[in-house]
Write a structure and sequence with these properties.
about 575 residues, single chain, FAD, AcylCoA_DH/oxidase_NM_dom_sf, AcylCo_DH/oxidase_C, about 50% helix, alpha+beta, flavoprotein
Length: about 575
């Protein structure tokens, strides 16, 4: 189930994709663990990786939509394919967050460009990718964060059809070297949303001033300042409400990448953790012979596999999206909020087992334990994404619609809809296929059945004791409710992907053993909320469940976990 560079064969993709993915793995493996660790500790700029990516045409192939590919050699390999983008996210996360980050912010920087009708800038971006450049997304500001309603980047008309831009941006990845920076600002002469502007800037311009790296890390997360930067008409990407929508839709595209990066980080850390525990003897016993160690490592493995299943299935909905099917807009913040926080839990479970080993400088785990914390906090906090998820709850649980089945999407297709998503509104009107279908198809799995009892109970709670008007203003209360709802959505896509991939039945049961316990944990939190009514609190206690125990099943899943010991170690 886990990515292993020793045996990796991306046979599900076309030949150019297989070559690029395998070349990326081989580059990291030949570079070796010592170089990986030394550059991380020294906070060395990853110029060697960017040179490799440029030489291979990696970013150009994966991040140029087919319509912008041109006619030059290699153009046939270019497309925006979420399945292979997710695959590269996982690989880059496996070797280090910094390598993933420079790729991720290039994706964000390209979002407003590929959504724009400005053919000149699109052609410029495509050529920059071909030449090996990276991009940046100039949205966040020190005073406002990523609040796109407020920006102090001011564009003043120059009297010749263009503008001069002045202001600062903060927390901008690749801002030190980006060939193109998509910058969000507002006109000085137009009030309200109609004054928004997205424009393309160049970090090499004399009016672009790099202030500093704002993080203490290998990656460069810049603060930059524009002083009367000339913005010509041909540099403008979007104006007015379209600029606002471009910002949100870009984040819709970009935030999906966090889930598979988190998966990659956890996979590498798991090989190290299981191998260390399996080879260590304490009090005359193998560490992995202690029951609590087996439980923690089994839980970590089950959670990690669930992360992979959910993320892969969410990608199918992303790739199959259309103006008539916007279900991806729920599954997308779910990948951002749920999968990345699950990644933190996976690392914590393993860290409890390996203890002090997790601090040692010559391990990957030491870096994973630091970097895994960042993913839930990028592209909107957990709370922001959970509040977004709540917008879908009514239609998802109570108002299903008919849709044609979404197949597994590993075809070599260009996901061009992602750059014509349209206005970023109407989320509460989006409808979903009946979530019960996936649960019904796996009703024979004991813990799926038990979790289904809890999910049905959530529907009963909302039908009989829905949040009052006062509770609907209490975000702390609503977030507890949102965690329960998110588990139902998470379980649905896990089940769908388990069926598509023929997942081992024992492992699926073990995953839902974890979800049953998680539902009980969040129900307990809801019970303790001061804003909960007596009826809601009583419901919470009534829906605590113990998972169905099966010693044989747990032993068989443990054998899968134990098999990871020695399965992979990065060359020195």
């Amino acid at each position: 189930m886990l990515f292993n560079p020793r045996t990796y064969d991306p046979a599900q993709f076309d030949e150019p994709t297989r070559r690029l993915l395998r070349a990326t793995v081989d580059w990291f493996e030949s570079r070796g663990k010592k170089a990986l660790i030394d550059t991380y500790v020294d906070r060395a700029w990853y110029g060697d990786f960017l040179e490799f990516a440029a030489k291979e045409g990696l970013f150009a192939a994966f991040l140029t939509p087919a319509g912008e590919a041109g006619q030059e050699a290699g153009a046939g390999a270019k497309r925006w394919d979420t399945a292979r983008i997710a695959e590269l996210n996982e690989i880059l996360g496996f070797y280090g967050l910094g390598y993933w980050y420079t790729w991720q912010v290039t994706i964000l920087g390209l979002g407003p460009v590929w959504q724009s009708e400005n053919e000149a800038v699109r052609a410029r971006a495509a050529q920059l990718l071909t030449d090996g450049h990276v991009m940046a997304f100039g949205l966040s500001e020190r005073s406002h964060g990523a609040d796109i309603y407020s920006t102090d980047m001011i564009l003043t008309p120059d009297g010749e059809g263009g503008f001069t831009a002045s202001g600062s941006k903060y927390y901008i990845g690749n801002g030190n070297v980006a060939g193109l920076v998509s910058v969000f600002g507002r006109r000085s002469d137009v009030e309200g949303p109609e004054g928004y502007v997205f424009f393309a800037a160049d970090s090499r311009h004399e009016a672009y001033h790099l202030v500093k790296n704002v993080v203490n890390a290998q990656m460069y997360v810049s603060e930059f300042r524009l002083d009367e930067y000339p913005v010509h008409a041909e540099d403008v990407l979007h104006t007015g409400k379209a600029a606002f929508d471009a910002a949100l839709n870009t984040v819709n595209v970009g935030k999906f990448n966090l889930c598979t990066a988190s998966v990659g980080i956890c996979e590498h850390a798991m090989y190290e953790a299981v191998t260390h525990a399996h080879n260590r003897v304490l009090y005359g016993k193998k560490v992995t012979d202690f029951p609590h160690v087996r439980r923690e490592l089994t839980d970590a493995y089950a959670r990690l596999v669930a992360m992979k299943l959910f993320s892969a299935r969410a990608a199918d909905y992303f790739r199959s999206a259309s103006p008539e099917d916007r279900r991806y807009l729920l599954f997308n913040p779910m990948t951002k909020m749920k999968v990345t926080t699950e990644g933190e839990k996976v690392i914590d479970l393993m860290w409890d087992v390996i203890a002090a080993k997790g601090f040692e400088a010559d391990t990957y785990f030491d870096k994973a334990a630091k970097d895994i914390r960042g993913l839930p906090k990028l592209e909107g906090t957990v709370h922001v994404n959970l509040a977004l998820i709540l917008k879908f709850m009514g239609n998802y649980l109570f108002n299903p619609a008919e849709y044609a089945p979404v197949p597994s999407r590993l075809d070599a297709a260009d996901d061009e809809f992602l750059f014509r998503q349209g206005p970023a509104r109407g989320l509460g009107a989006i409808r979903f296929h009946d979530w019960r279908t996936a649960y019904d198809r796996h009703a024979q799995v004991p813990n799926v059945a038990r979790f289904r009892e809890q999910a049905d109970g959530l529907c009963a709670l909302l039908a009989a004791h829905a949040p009052s008007p006062e509770q609907q203003q209490d975000l702390d209360f609503l977030l507890s409710l949102g965690q329960l709802f998110a588990l139902v959505v998470y379980g649905q896509l896990v089940l769908e992907q388990a069926e598509l991939t023929g997942l081992d039945g024992d492992l699926l049961d073990e995953i839902f053993d974890v979800l049953v316990r998680d539902f009980s944990t969040h129900a307990t939190e809801l019970h303790g909320k001061s804003g909960a009514s007596e009826e809601q609190a009583a419901w919470a206690l009534a829906h605590l469940r113990r998972p169905v125990a099966d010693a044989g099943r747990s032993a068989r899943v443990w054998a899968q976990v134990e098999g990871l010991a020695g399965a992979y170690e990065m060359p020195a």
